[in-house]
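S-adenosylmethionine:tRNA ribosyltransferase-isomerase
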Amino acid sequence: MRVDLFDFELPPERIALRPANPRDSARLLLLNGSETADHMVRELPSLLQPGDCLVFNDTRVIPAQLDGHRGEAGIGATLHKREGPRRWRAFLRNARRVREGDRIDFAHGVAATASEKGADGSMALTFLGDEPVELLLERAGRMPLPPYIAARRTPDAADAEDYQTMFAREAGAVAAPTAALHFTPQLMAAFAAQGVEHATLTLHVGAGTFQPVKVEDTVDHQMHAEWGRIDAATADRLSAVRARGNRLIAVGTTSLRLLESAAGEDDVIRPFEGDTAIFITPGYRFRAIDGLVTNFHLPRSTLFMLVSALMGRDRMQAAYAHAIASGYRFYSYGDASLLLP
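Predicted structure tokens:
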């Protein structure tokens, strides 16, 4: 499909630079079949049914952005995907000044050797020394805010908490599963009282989630691979939810993409561990999920294509036009939607 079919105009003032406070005070746009209605996130329990199951991503964002230098050249690095105990794939700022074998020195004595430039322009960074890379990043890295936020304000101490979900446990993401940023312990208690269940899986979100689609046709776009895991007990439980006639509601496109990667043609969710580069566009047959909680996405992005596949492109264009006209806040720190096809 033509990528320009997924374009729309978004006024810059609609981009949220801070999250709602408290988190569940964000607005929520409900699309339920042909119904469109304005709600608040804290009303979600009343919009779901007893026996439904929300599926969250428990990945934890690491301080994946580093500033350093090679000689006198300033070099920035955004880690993208782990490839080994000390090796990460990274996108470099000022990459033309870095050759394979070069050493890059970051803050606080942290250093890495660059190698193997990829077709996507990324390079492999192998961190030097014996300390665990996690400790090196805590010392020298910073929270990797999305470029559309970082370009408008400086990341600060508040982001270290604001950009983590309450479910964050498995360290490895370089971007937050932002739909889950809206959830609070009080909201989860309300779900439990309503008989709505929840489960977790792990997908380490990569920086590729922010990469623009640069081709003219979706068939030519190459997705970045991300690592995920659904254990056997969780897979069995999620399949049982649907088998008994209840709904699986993915919280975030990351949860949805991993669930769809783990589901077979028989619509059964099986254990999964490994990379997924699934690219969901209109015409895709969903096999694992019955609904989605998600934020509002960038024009021409793979995520807007995904929600268009779930609800229909014309439906989503109209919904986004309503959201823009009604003052909804967009992107990672913005408001949410509940999509029930």
